Request: fold
Amino acid sequence: MKLAAIDIGLKRIGTAVSPDGKIVFPQDAILRKNRNQAARDTDAFLQTWEVEKLVVGIPRGGSSEEEMTRRIQHFVSLLDFSGEIVFQDEYGTSAEAKERMQGAVRQKRDGRIDSIAAQIILERYLQQCTPES
Reply:
């Protein structure tokens, strides 16, 4: 099953894909000019990769949890996606992404950190779904 994850932010949407449910690859972030354009670009990303399940990062805890959850759910409702959508806690993914990219990123606004955060969201989801052997 082909999976993708998105990390929805106000300026960029980080993206990552897993073609086999095992390995996760970060993709180019989607720059967000407005929500309709961002939804169209996200739909195009999902169609290009023939995604069957979308994992959406959602904040748990923190003072803005309720507001961000509402915004994320509204954005997801704009997508023209017929596959399964699941929500995954994204707590700490941006900090972890910055740690992973330490020394490798000069221009922080290029969206790489956002897509690494999406990669972490998808990796966490896959870890929860795969029992340890």
